Amino acid sequence: MKKVAILGSTGTIGRSTLEVIRHRPRHFRVTALAAGSNICLLKEQILEFHPEIVSLERKEDADFIRNKFKKYSLRVTHGLDGAVEIGGNPGNDIVVSAITGIKGLKPTLAAVRAGKSVALANKESMVVAGALLRAEARKSGATIIPVDSEHSGVFQCLAGEDRRNVKKVTLTASGGPFFRTELSELQEKTVEETLAHPRWKMGKKVTVDSATLMNKGLELIEARWLFDFEPAELNVLIHPQSVVHALVEMRDGSVLAQLSPTDMKIPIQFALTYPERGDAVLPPLDLVRTGVLEFYPVEAKRYPLLRLAYWALQEGGSAAIALNAANEVAVAAFLARRIGFLAISEVIHRAVDGYQKRAVRSLDGILDVDRLMRERTSQIIQQRY
Ligand code: MG
User: Fold this and answer.
1) pTM to 2 decimals?
2) Ligand 1 centre from 148 Cα, in Å?
3) Closest CA to 148 of 27, 257, 266
């Protein structure tokens, strides 16, 4: 029985992880849950899965839960320290890292340093600290298994292959809700329209990133660190059906693809059971019912942020940290209705423009660039919008 800790248990990935575990109660035991502020859902999760320790973002919420469960032997902590304690707990076998944004970095790093299996859904931590996470994993013996569907696809295609035989990797993108929208209408797109993703049910931040294609940009950078690919070997194709998640082209012209139903429970289960496989918790993929699978090149005008992600990929150093920070601030401003949809990309371009690259190796260095870039981006929004 593997002991599982979940960072971000009340989010979309956290909930899907618990659904997978619900189907496999003899294989997994939930020992720790770190949540944000959804105390109602965390209460239900505690009653069902009986973790030994939980953490919430705010102290008031932690006090409430502690009081509610005072008859249980449940330890309740809070804040970033609480999440870090859960990630780094030596009793974990697997840590599912599913806190969104750079907030997930420290708890993820703690899990990697503890030498655990880390099922990684928090792409931002790989984007800003890929080199550091890889170096720490080498030292501690931690295994990082991707949960992001595209990276799980690449990971599965690469299994047993000699890396030298791989020529090119393609991540697919659904294109988001505005793939077929007239460019002139993008200006008017509301938060609600942006959050209405045609294929995937995801958290708000990643859904907005999916509409701008920044999500794919972050995933390119994530792939670079997970699999050690050069920028020129990484490619993106729009595939509105989201059935093919990744394509790996071999030297001899063969292309391997990974297909599965559009549901995160598939890659989550693979990360939990790896290197084994468990029985499916979903109906099988029915390609006849799915119908036509389409592929399109990325339209640069529609998705200007993808080019910026390639820039960060080429540039290296702190460029990805800067890009990620600007994006997190711009997306938050859009969700708060401070700026419009097209302004997300404008703000990020302005924030990154003229940015001085630095070589960053330590966690403090990363967080420093992140903080500076957040300030710069907030200033741009305040002054111009
Ligand atoms: Mg993805």
Assistant:
1) 0.95
2) 5
3) 266
